[in-house]
Amino acid sequence: MAGYKGILHKLGIASSSGSENIEIDKTLKMTKVNADTGYDKAAFIQHGTRTTALVYGTQTSHLLLRSHNITAGATGVYVIGDHGIITTSALSTGYFTGSHYRVNVGHTVGAARAYYGEVNITATAVLNGNVRCFYADLYIAAGTITGAGKLNGVSVEVAVLAGTTVAQGISGIEVDMRGIKVDVAGETIGIKVTMAGGGNYLDYGMQFSNCFNTATAVLNFDLTQGNVACVILTESGAHTITKAFSFTGTITTLLHFGATGAGIVHGGAAAANVAGYIKVMVGTTAYRIPYLVDSDS
């Protein structure tokens, strides 16, 4: 089989006998597919609803819809696996999505991922730029931006509907750094927010908002797996930190310590009404801050 018929057969849209089971009109719309390849009749390239697609049926073996291997030579070219541009041309209330995948899980599975990507550094390399497994760039060049919509570089939404039972915990974002098995020369950071730079108008490096009464804590450090040199470290260098901590609003208890540990030395006070001390370090010298019994409680 030669020519375009052989190509169609390799694509699975022509039978081995050479008869074409495909009809293509000017809009590149497939109306028939070859039955002996396992496809059901559906649209291949079309305009219409996103629910109309090729139906592959129930798979009992591995299925890879598309695969391509590319070797980049020693040149200055860019190599991009998939590239597309969507441009609006008029006022619209529609949604625009560059890529959308949905995985429906209703049975026992080994794992499920809507998106998965990896960068493998397998040999000695000189990195002239940043290496990222996932990169998102929100770029606002000009114009006046209004409306109720939010601008997010990366947005993660988690929903658990009423009546659902979930046996494990849920994380909106999880960063697992346990794979670092060597002490690298630079710093290893789970989440980094860069705020410095000329003309930077960042208000908050991190913000937690809209907490509910069911929240145990806004920020939790679970350090039960090993010793930690310091929980919160602030460094200003040649600059000045105006306020290390600032509290506003109604606060029932400013600081809460456990009955033991946490730098507490309870009892043994020499001064009257002093119930104990909080141990602090100034430089390399140890001091104690006394605390009194709260007669108002």
Descriptive overview:
This protein starts with a helix and ends in a 5-residue tail after the last strand. It is built from 1 helix and 3 strands, in the order H-E-E-E. The radius of gyration is 30 Å and the shape is extended. With about 300 residues, the chain is largely without helices or strands. About 5% of the residues have low confidence. A 3-stranded antiparallel β-sheet has the order 1-2-3, with no helix packed on it. The longest helix has 8 residues.
Give a quick set of tags describing it.
little secondary structure, 3 strands, extended
Question: Can you tell me the residue ranges where pLDDT is under 50 for at least 5 consecutive residues?
Answer: 24-28, 33-48
Count of β-strands? 3
Structural class: little secondary structure
Q: Count of DSSP helices? A: 1
General form: extended
Helix content: under 10%
Task: Compose a concise summary of this entry.
By secondary structure, the chain is largely without helices or strands.
Give a topology summary:
Elements: H1 3-10, E1 264-266, E2 274-282, E3 285-292
Antiparallel strand pairs: 1-2, 2-3
